Amino acid sequence: METAILTFLIILQIYFLAGLAFGVYFILFAKRIDPLMGNSKKVIRLLLFPGVVATWPFLIKRLFQNKNE
Amino acid sequence: MGLDYKLVLWNKHKKKYDKIFALSIVLYLVLFIVLTLLLNPEGTAETLIIRAFGSLAILMLHIILIIGPLCRLNPQFLPILYNRRHLGVSMFLAALIHGTFAIIQFHTLGNTNPIVSVFTSNLDYGSLTNFPFQVLGFLALLILFFMASTSHDFFLKNLSPKIWKGLHMMVYVAYALITLHVFLGAFQQETSLPTIGIMLVGFILVSGLHLTAAFKETKNDNIKKKKEEDGWLKVCQVREIMENRAKIFTVNQERVAIFKYQGKLSAIHNVCKHQGGPLGEGKIVDGCVTCPWHGYQYLPQNGQSPPPFTEKVATYELRVQNGWVFIKPEAFPEGTEVEPAKI
């Protein structure tokens, strides 16, 4: 049981660390994910940061979709 | 609907409700602390904070969960619905304070990582009565974090409405986890019967209201409407619809809102393009159908958002005869101009 719990927590940690890295990218290049971010105040990026950390796989998918369009 | 993102979507009414909620939160906390100090003066400050914010978060979660069915049962509750997003984020913050203090108090004294300690300090996962209830609270907090942190239009657009909605429907999983967390916690720590009783009443209230609202909607959906020979459906009398308001009907398995305004009637699809809000529960403001959830607007005669916005919903043809309203069940493509029916 303990091994399963530790594995779950390590996966969770990796997920959020990757999210933090993508969050930094978002702060710098949010416009590449959503062009509307270019018209919005920069402080909004900080407000959105926790959500970006939480949902980064979906936003990476969005980023690639935008690049392919 | 917008050409940029706003930090917080505030307007006069939302500010008013936010002030009321903030004041209510402060009053609740003061009341809880004073009562606890009077009834149990030996408790520590950390325990007081954990219980005050934990109970506050549960109370707010119950309010959040009953707002939806209450609005479907009685439109007078709609103003609270407009503020649900801010209430949800505030509830998460209260739960976060509760969780943080609980982890600090119970899991930071040893050498183990506090989060690991939450999961491993009690490994009696096979037991029902001694199950590690704090794990349930932690998982619920994790779900609430995902929800609160994505409570912005940016995520609704970029995650897609389907994924966003799915994520936010997880509130029911969080509610189940929190209910078990409180039940087990109250049972294991001190067998607190009042806590168990309050949670039980809350559960009955939440499930009862959801079932009642679902029953009412099913009943409305099943009302047989007489289909006329020429393909028109007789739905209601004109006087049944209030001025600048709508009545909602199910036509061809789709919900349609019929609005009355300035001596005319127009019908549009009931589902807002923004977040699936019920347009028929909104009203006409400045000549536009205004969604009760976040204020997205559509022109009643063509279902189009006023320029420069681009959202569109389907429209329907109406006819008025001897005070009765008839509708053509086939929807026009989204944004199609339809001549309003004169009353």
TrEMBL record, chain A:
Keywords from the UniProt entry: Membrane, Transmembrane, Transmembrane helix
Domain of life: Bacteria
Transmembrane annotation, as ranges: 6-30, 42-60
Name of this protein: Uncharacterized protein
TrEMBL record, chain B:
Higher taxonomy: Bacteria, Pseudomonadati, Bacteroidota, Flavobacteriia, Flavobacteriales
Annotated protein name in UniProt: Nitrite reductase/ring-hydroxylating ferredoxin subunit
SUPFAM superfamilies xref list: ISP domain
Organism of provenance: Flagellimonas meridianipacifica
Subcellular location: Membrane
MF annotations from Gene Ontology: 2 iron, 2 sulfur cluster binding; metal ion binding
Main subcellular localisation: membrane
Membrane topology: Multi-pass membrane protein
Membrane spanning residue stretches: 20-40, 52-75, 87-108, 128-148, 169-187, 193-215
Recorded GO CC terms: membrane
Stretches assigned to the Rieske domain: 233-327
Family to which the UniProt record says this protein belongs: Belongs to the bacterial ring-hydroxylating dioxygenase ferredoxin component family.
Keywords assigned: 2Fe-2S, Iron, Iron-sulfur, Membrane, Metal-binding, Transmembrane, Transmembrane helix
Cofactor annotation: [2Fe-2S] cluster
UniProt-listed InterPro entries: Fe3_Rdtase_TM_dom, Rieske_2Fe-2S, Rieske_2Fe-2S_sf
